[in-house]
Amino acid sequence: MNKKQKKQNQNVVNNFLKAYFYVLTKSTIQHLIKFYTEESTYSCGIQGSMKLKTMKGIEEIKTSIRLESNQETYISNVMHTPIDDQGNLLVSITGAFYQKFETDEYEFGDNEKLKFQNVMENKNREKTHFHRTFVLKFNSKKRNYSILNDILRYNRKY
Question: Which end of the chain is more exposed for a tag (fewer CB within 10 A), N or C?
């Protein structure tokens, strides 16, 4: 693969991840499901467990996928590689979902309000580590990508 193709793949992966995790944490299931097609599969389970729940198609995925609306996402590692000559990409991600900061309001005389953000160190914030693998399918007619396979594994808490 030449440098130009590597750069294009990197741009596709970066743009996909920004859009996907933005929608996952800040939007609705109706927006999130637009990343999938009828041939898409979504699997979810716990790392190290043989139990993996798998859904196929938009309706099954819509009823099973979980929005992380009260979470912030931290992605620690991303790897990607082309898997065929059709433009499809394998994307592997490790990261964590963190509870969002709580915001409290305090009143100080004359009804002035001061918003106080409870800033805690990451170690004190509840977090869930995960590993996620996507197969992004290239649609040559529409010149875009959709999720063919999505495998999400939450890491066990020790």
Answer: C
- Compute and round to an integer the Cα radius of gyration of the chain: 19
CA distance readout (Å), 14 to 44, 109, 157:
23, 48, 29
Residues 65 and 57: their CA atoms lie apart, in Å, by 12
CATH code, domain with 25: 3.10.450.50
Range of the domain at 73: 3-96+128-154
Residue 31 lies in a domain: yes
Whether the Cβ atoms of residue 41 and residue 54 lie closer than 8 Å to each other: yes
Domain count for the chain, please give it: 1
Q: Which residue has the higher pLDDT, 13 or 48?
A: 13
The pLDDT > 90 percentage for the chain reads 47
Provide the H-helix boundaries in 27-154.
29-32, 58-64
**Mean pLDDT on 137-155:** 93
Gap between the Cα atoms of 62 and 65, Å rounded: 6
- Kindly report the number of other CB atoms within 10 A of residue 65's CB atom: 18
